[in-house]
Amino acid sequence: MTTLKDVAQHVGVSISTVSRVVNNEATRSVNSETRRKIWDAVKELGYQSNKGNRHAVKGGQHTPTSTEAVRIGCIVAVTQNKYNHPYFSGILEGIEKSLLNYGCELSYVYTGDDLRNPGVINRILHDHPVDGIILVEGLDPSLYKMIRKSISHVIGVDVSDPGIARVTYDRVEAAKVAVKHLVEKGHKRIAFIGGSGLSQDMEREKRYRGYREALREADIMYRPEWALNSHWEVEESYQLTKQLLKNEEERPSAIFAASDMMAIAAMRAVNECGLRIPDDVAIVGIDNIEFSSYSSPPLSTIHIPKLEIGQIAAKLLVDYIHNKMPIPVKITVPFEFIARQST
Question: Which UniProt keywords are present, listed alphabetically (predicted)?
Fold first, then answer.
């Protein structure tokens, strides 16, 4: 079954852009050429929106009629809307596939960039009511409060509110596993690259906390000048790593990046500085995006089950809407360390 992600990849745009076009939304303009390419891809790939697939067949039977009228919205609080973010697109794929199986309608997918448009916020809160919403990562507190007040059922992915059902992985422990791997390889000079959350406080970022805890447990001195806040920007990760490596006498022998995107950018910086990976600088990331196995050398990383996270979130929301879940549960999915040539 063709999904929004398939269409987005075919055209080379974000999933939210495809969602706006196929749902005929006017809240944010999409140029005519892009619209034409999207509709051409829809026709070529045979995509049909959930709205037209409420009688999808599953296991030889129609999906239950009790879910046919359910409309779901999704907000991905990532701000990079220029491309399909390889971590979040995996979660979205799981959400869309699961909702399709239940015969539910995915009414919209918005990003953090979209929410800067007051028309989009008005659409979410007033003009286009949904039965439930899946929020992937956190929002501005005031906007989050309005959504909680306006929409009956909210499911969070990596959201800290204990008042809603959540799906997550243990980010602190995942970071500790990654750093411990570097320590086991004999590294004592380990840098960090990542970013802060909505609070702009690095101390509250869980992967950063895991990095600090792993250093402390290994009795390794923490060096604040080696903790790089790239604000989750690829270019910033690349530039900060180049600056960090200029000092030959005081440079780290290993880098823990809090996402594979940051790690791959850092790898380019290491190579451009004339250093070898992992001989001079070892690098490990988190996410296990598809690109990580094709980097040079292939990136050691923590595999996060992105597709399954999306599927679980969608299943939880459908269950809550139909009163099958009386309390807001928290589901923590497992992760797995994958050792490759970058360490």
Answer: DNA-binding, Transcription, Transcription regulation
